[in-house]
Amino acid sequence: MLIKDIPLDDLHLSDLACPDSFFWPGYIWFWNDLVTEDIIKTQLEDMCVHGAKSVWPFAWPNFRPDFNPTSMEPEYLSNEFLDLFRLVAQHATRLGMRVWLYDEGGWPSGSAFGKVVRENPSLLFKPLERKLIPLTAGESIKVPEDALAVFLVNPDGSKQRLTPGTEITGNKNSVLHVYSQAEYDINAPNIIPYPDHLKPIATESFIRHTHEAYKAVASEYFGDTIPLAFTDEPRLCNCPWTDDAKEDFERQFGYDLTDHLPAIFDTDSSDGANVRVDYFDWWSRRYADTFFGGIKDWCHSNSLLSAGHLGGEDSTSGSRVHGYGHILRVLREFDIPSVDTIWRQLFPGELTMIDHSWAGNASKIPSAVNHHFPKFASSVAHQKELKWAATESFCVYGSGITPAQMKWVTDFQYVRGINLMTMGGYSTSTRDYYMGGQRPNAGPGNPMWKYSDLYHSCTARLSYIMSLGKPDIDIAVYLPIRDMWAAGPDMQAIELSHDQLAKTLLQCQCDFDVIDDDILENKSTQIADGTLAVGPMRYQTIILARTDWISEASKATLERFRESGGRVLQVDGGYNCEDTVELQQLPGLLQPVVDISPANPMIRACKRTTPTGSIYLVTNEGTTGTSTEITFEEPITPVQIDPETGACWKVSDARIENGRCVMPLIMDFAGSCILWFSDSEVDITQQPAIPGDEVLNLNTGWSCKRVREYRIGEHDFEVADISEEAVNITLGDWSTTFGDGFSGDAQYCVEFDCDEALLETAAALDLGDVHCACEVSINGKSLGRKSWPPYCFPLAGTLRNGSNYLAVTITNTMANQFVTGDLQDRWPDNVIGPYHSIALGLEKDSMASGLAGPVRLRNGKHPIWR
User: Fold this and answer.
1) Does 242 lie in the same domain as 132?
2) DSSP for 738-778?
3) How many helices (H) and strands (E) does the chain have?
4) The whole model's pTM is what?
5) Among residues 525, 574, 721, 855, which is most buried (max CB within 10 A)?
6) Residue 792 belongs to a domain with what CATH number?
7) Residue 709 maps to a domain
8) For 24-38, how does the pLDDT look when each residue is reduced to its tens digit (9 = 90+)?
């Protein structure tokens, strides 16, 4: 089926049962070693069987030889390489899979592995640089003739622009500031020269080398098996410049930028902030149009969608420091705007700093930042009426990431509007030091791989559901992008003000989109009857945190919006302090998506509307389970949708009070709940019972044995079955029995007696804490598998009068092997790469293993419990 033909008008249960392969998580498929047709066929089939139904063949030539060496064969973009890509499309079509066209060899996208510049050296990107030359009193020096500008800076801070070629005599403590374009040797070893994508010809050359090459061998699959082209982390390092920068800037802003170059570098000062704002506005707009817009135009001409993400978008100030200038402006040039979630930027718990040591340098990596940045991509998708916003998640999360934590990270992003998952990673080779590369490594060498289909199918259904209809959001939050450009001493305070506003709104279940000056200044943005219309979105409340640099045109739009009946609220002051409110006042001034009683700041909620009803996603972002009562502005009883199975049922404990639906809500860690309010007739199943009161405690009498071991072998991951006698074990971490380094499967067994009374009352088996996935049987009959809480199983038809035999196979992660192993000692840092150290720091907190319990048989109840 063509991507454009996937029906998303309303909920269809047949599509819910088995969504199109496009919705299933797509794996980054690292081609880091020899690639053959046999490898392609075998690994595609392995991914397909496990529910990884979309893949990126990620070409990894030796683009980082100094610290990430690889041995990819055949050569990137060679005829042999392109033939293999065509084989991927052929085999994927046979398997019903989707293939994403990844547009670079390594990353960042844009250079075609250096081919663009090596073919035409004039396309080399040469950013603006400043050299400082201290002068001594009486010293004479000739002003460089080839510089863009030269300034003499005196001890009192005063500046004098100098004429090139003239000779000056320095004063005591004066400094010569020389501004020019940086020069690089494109033939230097281990350098991948990057093009100047402020030049349209550079983008055209990149497309010719990459996109057109793929088109030549696989165009018949475009739009179907190959739905999109993905652009990965392109950027122009600060500070961008190009050949006609001076002239183009002056045409737009009316003054000579070279007269003000010191302001671009003096970011700690409030002086020159207006120049920095104009400069960032100029180059970020040109970059978005020339590079990202050029790729999108090519994609549209070739039946493809344009997708991609940037780097460092996980902070409000990322636009300033990561070389793309304006996160929203760039994302608007994609058909599928995306974000990147790496090394646990999103993770349960509070912000922590992880030790990272590489090549003799020690640093800290932040974990659990939990910023609202997925909303950058989803807001763009909402406002441009795009069907999807995507995430690239889990690269360098470490091999200790559990399915429950993966679900938590997924829910975090989906409740903020993301609805398409792609993830890292699956490697063609894990031999030798590749074992320690981008972890987690999916595939047969990972003990969690056999449970991965549970996560994949759940996420596929969630992606399908959250693609339906349109988001129901009437609050917009202004992004102070111009303040980030202006920098100066107040930038961090302004960033913090914005971030606290976003956090407060989410904690009181108020959903929002992000807007900026581009939205407020755009002629297509309409104001009528107290509503700001941005594409299909209708905002009735606009909230601003502190901003000193909102544009005059944006202020005028907000004033017209206010005069039409719209509401403008400001936190921490702003351009019009008459509307200022305190942060803690916001919950009482806004209508949340749902009402929670008692209040719970860890619950998130979003809503989508379809022609026949409303869909709500409610998630738990706490580190423990939660129980509360939830109220919806809906006059009917909902159907609950279980994304794990596709089953639907009427919520029996829901009640209607004063035209609103009220129900209990119980969610475990990483719990979420999808509710559909509709009068449509649907096939529903009986609502499953949930664990109630304990009727039998099974915490003692257990034995355990290891049955399969996953090892970091001498040259690759090794998996071996183990035959050994069971030993008595106490519930808890199995390290006391098997040691810290065991990764794999261990089978716990216990016998217990049932009488007639117990047979009548026992409805569920509750395993309590499991680290971190399990498969269960009673009396030889399978109860199924679980890889996140609640680890509960219905017991209908499994128990018998008299003796019963319970077997629980627990699987942990590879963290234990990596933390206790010597992989880091076998290869130097510059071979094993920097990601190993980062992952290792994360894995040290991920070694819990085994069945912790308490294990109980319980009777059944019927509140919502996902």
Assistant:
1) no
2) H-TT--EEEEEEEEEEE-HHHHHH--EEE-BEEESEEEEEE
3) 26, 48
4) 0.96
5) 855
6) 2.60.120.260
7) yes
8) 999 999 999 999 999
